[in-house]
Design brief:
Layout (H helix, E strand, L loop, with lengths): L8 E7 L10 H9 L3 E3 L14 H6 L3 H16 L1 H7 L7 E11 L1 H10 L2 E2 L4 E2 L5 E7 L22 E4 L13 H10 L5 E4 L1
Parallel strand pairs: 1-2, 1-3, 3-6, 6-7, 7-8
Antiparallel strand pairs: 4-5
Length: about 200
């Protein structure tokens, strides 16, 4: 959290990538805090799994229940902001409960996109949370049966989104190319969306 100023400050909830840990992103969260944001990083159920050497299979075995649970980790934080401030007095009055963004890397980008309004198929399941006012999706997924994403998945994303990927950002399979990752941006509605490439 910012150490200068009284707040309240905007909140970024940052969702880690599959098997990573919240400690993996200390440099990023420290930078955001230095720029005036409070950052909370949940540890999802898959936290630390990369150490087991089975990341590809474990990642592919994720189900809609796992996706929902990751979203619930984030919504539990939003629901519990008053309790968090009570438990950590140094945060009292520092979190702006009306300015909440969700960011994430890889699987965390998927989590963030779901909270921002992306739907999974079949059935067009929505995990959107109206309290989320912006999304940062680093290394996002494009359309994929594995993730229940189609070209239509992003049509109801109406919050500002910064998508970030790069020319060497490849996934676990050959079809998960940098161009595939760009499709999250390309399939989002026109308006408040940006692509860092």
């Amino acid at each position: 959290y910012p150490t200068r100023g009284t707040g309240p400050f905007p909140l970024i909830i940052f969702s880690h990538g599959f098997g990573a840990t919240r400690q993996t992103y200390v440099g990023l969260s420290a930078h955001w805090a230095s720029q005036g944001y409070v950052v909370i990083k949940p540890a999802h159920a898959d936290s630390g799994r990369l150490e087991n050497g089975t990341a590809e299979k474990a990642w592919r075995d994720q189900t809609p229940s796992d996706w929902r649970n990751r979203v619930r980790d984030v919504t539990a934080i939003i629901d519990g902001l008053d309790k968090i401030e009570e438990s950590y007095p140094e945060l009292k009055g520092k979190i702006d409960h009306t300015k909440i963004a969700v960011g994430g890397h890889s699987y965390g980008a998927f989590t963030a996109m779901l909270l921002g309004g992306a739907k999974t198929f079949p059935g067009g399941t929505s995990y959107a949370d109206a309290r989320v006012k912006a999304v940062v999706a680093m290394s996002p997924q494009g359309p994929s049966d594995t993730f229940g994403l189609t070209a239509d998945s992003w049509k109801d994303v109406h919050v500002p989104v910064l998508y970030m990927t790069g020319t060497e950002d490849r996934g676990l399979s050959d079809n998960e190319t940098p161009e595939w990752r760009r499709q999250a941006f390309e399939n989002s509605p026109a308006g408040d969306k940006w692509l860092g490439w």
